[in-house]
């Protein structure tokens, strides 16, 4: 490739939304010269990605398909430095996530309070993104869109146990966990898996799905900055992505010119850093880094949000779960591979998360969580029955290293907080794109978040103890309650009844708080670092995704979310990509007619 490449449209970032933008533009303009730049490798014909269950282990094996951001020490977590992974492969998070299909609440989009982005206005966009292949008696979901979702080709025997455990809790069973309007219940999980048994990825279904004259894919290339001349984005500067972790040497700097549009779609952690290196951001921060401030945008990188998660482990009877494959038992792995290659079924055609739940607290529970939580929840969700305070899943596997736990069978419950009051930030610490940014997750900086996690832990611990298959708790995944406490973890246990509840003393509460601070993690749902809202309110992009103060520059990823959403975020990233493609298609046709 020459030193300078010229394209019509440059998509800087080949994640979920970036693939949607590039693919839809390719459909609309076959002769348009499109370049999509991805920091990681391509994802075509990669069995670890294609096989759903195999792919969930990527976060632990540290392949090049995942990029890890190390956060600054967090005083609210005892100085812990959180690690936040992101997709680093063409297709982004859809290639590495845990495949749970969820939808944001209808009110989530309406709360964005942005013209063109209400739920009703987005509904055609949503339907274009989804090819629903599961039961849909109410006809809620799109059937002819791009990304297949189904129950997968294997279902564990967890269902009957889950129904029994939730009896009497007031949490209803739901036939559809992704209906946009229900914020409280539990039910079987639909997954980002097609009926063919393959993982559904944005690259597979928007880029690789048919022969295309465009886009040109530049993989393993890092976007250093957008080139802004006289207030116009004219291209990007790129270099080779690091060949190994920790390598910060800049190699093979090149320019990719854009005649018509630059779309930055590098994700909620990379996009604000690209903008700052380009001279768009808070002038004080840019000045400290020696970057000329070309656009005064103090909202860049300022309002980082995530869904903070807690994971608990439980011992259970064998339910034909996924332990053998998770332990990499050679016989189990070989059997699973043969079955998947034969017809796309078996354990490789599923994920560990068979059942999901969405939970809202009662008025009495809200009061018990204290005034700071009550004030926080009243602003974001109390009056919206479609908004769950927490979402989570139950899976027949131990989420961790089996060598560290006793032999046996395990189930894990994971929950995350959908609308945390905590806020963080991310800013460049160098003009070198390979240097880790100054990243503050802000986890638990709002006291209401801790109270919400305590409530969820107690409720879900009670559910687990009522599973007919329950055999006890895995001690390292639970608090270290004081000796003699009624809440103490029992090494061997038996299923409980609804009346057999745990009373938590003041000392138990302290132990629970310490546990949450120690074990809390990201849910990979980073967002809101370049929000779509008025500039004087800290906004970075307008309703057409244009960066304020720069012509021919749009953003299209989860960084533009002005507020959080009550769901996994893959579906939202697809919506943003589809909406950007729709807007940009109209822009290009207005500017130059059909191409």
From TrEMBL:
FAD binds at residues 89, 223, 524-525. Keywords: FAD, Flavoprotein. Its cofactor is FAD. Residues 87-110 form the Glucose-methanol-choline oxidoreductase N-terminal domain. Pfam families: GMC_oxred_C, GMC_oxred_N. Belongs to the GMC oxidoreductase family. This is GMC oxidoreductase-domain-containing protein. It comes from Papiliotrema laurentii (Cryptococcus laurentii).
